[in-house]
Amino acid sequence: MTMDDGRRVTWSKASLIVTAIFLLSLSSSASVAAHGRSSKRFVRSYDEPCKKMRLYLHDILYDYSNSTANSTAAAVTKPTALSTAVSKSGYFFGRVVVFNDPVTEGKALPPALEETAVRAQGLYLYDNKEDYTAWLAFSVVFNSTAHRGTLNLIGADPLAEKTRDISVVGGTGDFFMARGVATIRTDAIEGFKYFRLQMDINLYECYV
Ligand SMILES: *[C@@H]1O[C@H](CO)[C@@H](O)[C@H](O)[C@H]1NC(C)=O
Ligand SMILES: *[C@@H]1O[C@H](CO)[C@@H](O)[C@H](O)[C@H]1NC(C)=O
Ligand SMILES: *[C@@H]1O[C@H](CO)[C@@H](O)[C@H](O)[C@H]1NC(C)=O
């Protein structure tokens, strides 16, 4: 080994130490940003979900015939000219519905619709002239002893498909920086008045 080699070895050791210190400082600033998640580990695994949840969303559309207390969703558009022009039955093209829906672990409607610890807040809109398809954008807001925070979901919802996959694009609180896919399935439907969605939320990036 020449002296030159020796110096190179020493230099690379020094640079390793500097790199290690740099990485340590990076990871500590990451845990500061994660608000006390320092005891938790960030897992990214696209083969196996790091967290799985099955939840049910109950959407009760106010249709003038029912009580306002028993309604969690409201159409915010009049039938669009295009939707009435393209088809007699109407696929509601352009209709936008805003909701603040109860979300439960079981299938039963909760006794107090406004007071569940988990809510789904957002909108869906109908976006097809010749079929029932919708587009969803909403937050699942958790305010329970088990979880606090939000998951934000977005995606196309072709209603004729038995299951539809939508993206979990991010999260906050207990779901800080979470990402994944939610498989949704219409579990029950009463005309255009009520539907229950089964949501299988699989996170592939999360703190565990
Ligand atoms: C709301 O509709 C349900 C059926 O969809 C009915 O059982 C209930 O009595 C209605 N409530 C009111 C206040 O109209
Ligand atoms: C969250 O739950 C707590 C305790 O039940 C309640 O006091 C608080 O108002 C809730 N916050 C929201 C935003 O619903
Ligand atoms: C509320 O509406 C849902 C959906 O139509 C219905 O199943 C339920 O019986 C209604 N509850 C009350 C108290 O009216």
Describe the structure.
This protein has 208 residues and is of the alpha+beta class. It folds into two domains: 1-39; 42-207, AOC barrel-like. Helices cover 18% and strands 44% of the residues. The chain has two helices and ten strands. Strands 2-4-5-6-7-8-9-10 form an eight-stranded antiparallel barrel. The longest helix is centred in the first third of the chain and has 31 residues, at 3-33. The model is unreliable at 5-10 and 24-33 (pLDDT under 50). The structure holds 2-acetamido-2-deoxy-beta-D-glucopyranose (3 copies). One 2-acetamido-2-deoxy-beta-D-glucopyranose is lined by residues 60, 70, 190, 193-194. It is found in: Secreted, Extracellular space, Apoplast. Homodimer. It comes from Oryza brachyantha. Belongs to the plant dirigent protein family. Keywords: Apoplast, Secreted, Signal.
Indicate how many domains the architecture comprises. 2
- Enumerate the strands of the largest sheet in spatial order, edge to edge or round the barrel: 2-4-5-6-7-8-9-10
- What percent of the residues sit in helical stretches (DSSP H or I)? 10-25%
Query: H/E series, N to C?
Result: HEEEHEEEEEEE
Keywords: Apoplast, Secreted, Signal
Protein name: Dirigent protein
Pfam families: Dirigent (PF03018)
Subunit structure: Homodimer.
Entry keywords:
single chain; AOC barrel-like; 2 domains; 8-stranded antiparallel barrel; 10 strands; binds 2-acetamido-2-deoxy-beta-D-glucopyranose; Allene_oxi_cyc_Dirigent
